Amino acid sequence: MITIKEIAQRLNMSTTTVSNVIHGKAGEVSEETRRRVEEFLKEVDYVPNINARNLAQNESKIIGLALKARVDKYENLIMDPFVAELIGGIEETIRNAGYFMMLYISRDTEKIMRHVSTWNVDGLILFGMLDDDGIRVSTKYKKPIVCLDTYSMEGLKHFTNVGLDDEQGAYEMVKYIISCGHQRIAFLSDNTKGVDLARLNGYKRALKEAGIEYSEKDFLKIRPASAEIEESLDEICHRALDYTAIMCVSDLYAVTLMSALTDRGIRVPEGISIAGFDDNMLGSLYRPALTTVHQDVKQKGVVAAETLLKKIRGEETEAQITLPTRLVIRDTVTKPRKSSFMGRF
Amino acid sequence: MITIKEIAQRLNMSTTTVSNVIHGKAGEVSEETRRRVEEFLKEVDYVPNINARNLAQNESKIIGLALKARVDKYENLIMDPFVAELIGGIEETIRNAGYFMMLYISRDTEKIMRHVSTWNVDGLILFGMLDDDGIRVSTKYKKPIVCLDTYSMEGLKHFTNVGLDDEQGAYEMVKYIISCGHQRIAFLSDNTKGVDLARLNGYKRALKEAGIEYSEKDFLKIRPASAEIEESLDEICHRALDYTAIMCVSDLYAVTLMSALTDRGIRVPEGISIAGFDDNMLGSLYRPALTTVHQDVKQKGVVAAETLLKKIRGEETEAQITLPTRLVIRDTVTKPRKSSFMGRF
DNA sequence: TTGTACGCGTTATCAA
DNA sequence: TTGATAACGCGTACAA
Fold this sequence. Notes:
Chain A has 3 domains: 4-48; 62-164 and 297-323, Rossmann fold (3-Layer(aba) Sandwich), CATH 3.40.50; 166-296, Rossmann fold (3-Layer(aba) Sandwich). Helices cover 43% and strands 17% of the residues of chain A.
């Protein structure tokens, strides 16, 4: 690890000159010395010490990606294909802009904020925040923040949220399901907050518009904890028989449900129609291929990172960026079974 | 961002005392002052500046995770469920040990090494390295390195490789397939290097042991680039009719193949048996559920991180750690179809 | 038990 | 065009 000081010594010049060459301050240095220094830099393969640089400049070139893990969901958040794709988009964008990504996963907002302060990160991307987390964060951290899929940041000024038109996406899918002739349509999710709530609302709007009444029992709650999921699926498959279609809040749940139904001898889509949301590998590789609502997750990551970089440069950004969805019609939603035919298939 | 200096001023003491309290050097400081300082630290929510600390100590508390992306495979490496799970295991282990993870993805080994030097990372975990990459790395970087699934690091001293008994896993699966009565068994992969080669060798060993001859054409090469995959699958499905079972190098390919076969009216396992390797979500959620070789990917990440931490502490570690595999028998491998029955199903 | 002073590698200011 | 020197925040040897 050669330092500027050493280089200056060996070349018989001052550190300032070397530093000037490194930073291409052309006006400040003669052509001759510039050449000499540059050659030497190549030769010894000089790499700047970023700690020293950051200390001197009070910046870090680090962008923090903090994932707030949910206690009940995945034991390993990153295994969610959604999260994985998101990270890919973010990392690529950050890297191309000359920044670096530091990943931090925690259930504890406090810990996340300590981490962020410690590293003096230049900007922060948050995923999985709910309710008052945002407020807690904004009092501690004064640099730019971009949130992903967060529905509770309205009042907060220097935040931007990058989200999806979840409500509209679900609305359009359920409208399509209804147009296929379905009247008894359930909604499957594991909670009714944030993104899930928005999708639920879209579902309700489509029902209402078609004059179909919604009641509490049309909400099928899945318990994702691995210990409970089988029991949970048992109950859901049983209740599913009262419906001809189920709108699932995610592709993962749609595929999980289809497998469970298949195991119990109920065929999709002949026995029941299933729709997903997200459009990931899980649904496109399954057979029958899943009818779902598409969102471009990588793009979401890219937009989030780009917006954050803008903020860091001091440019103005919108407070809310909403990406569109698109219906992907494949094979799991068809005409409903004859309504007299209520047994197993 | 309050500094030690400020704290010392406000408390009318020296920075050394404050620093001593922070580092719990109990013997060096009176109970009274310790209490006073600690209270004040809480009050102002002191967070150390890690750049200054690292600069002073010449360490970074950063562990680099460098993924060498392959040009032809995923446009977004992290979308590989394998990679995602791996990262989860690594991040968790590193975080619990008080280190931080910096993720860097590149196709260019040089770039990876520059990045690593810049940040002065205390240790490095490498994934996706092939052939001479290891040598290039070891000349540049003198701190501890752990490789994952790398088959070409034999000679290199301060490396440890964490791998899997790929050969044995494939061997056992193919042996099982043969025990079900199959004689015509193909192998599907996209290359014959590293991990893929080891699995191919296991397949060959099982064939040989059973007195089944292997010929070049039994290797079905899939081309994963999205533009070519359909064409590729067309050819593979056609050639698949010559076999009663196909050993796939990964769950992803197994599921991809099953979908393609289903689309062409060939049923699994009635028409053809399929086996995978990895045991991830893709295979367990598919119906029929995939018979596959299990590996604990998260554990692999944990072991890699733990080994690296050991190396950083100066402890001895083995040069090669090989994790075991386990057969997961589900529904996609059964008795072969009658051999006269060669058409579509 | 506490304080002074210096070094870590870099950038920035200002003088030569 | 170049060079001395201070500053960034922290840790630590050594002095008091």
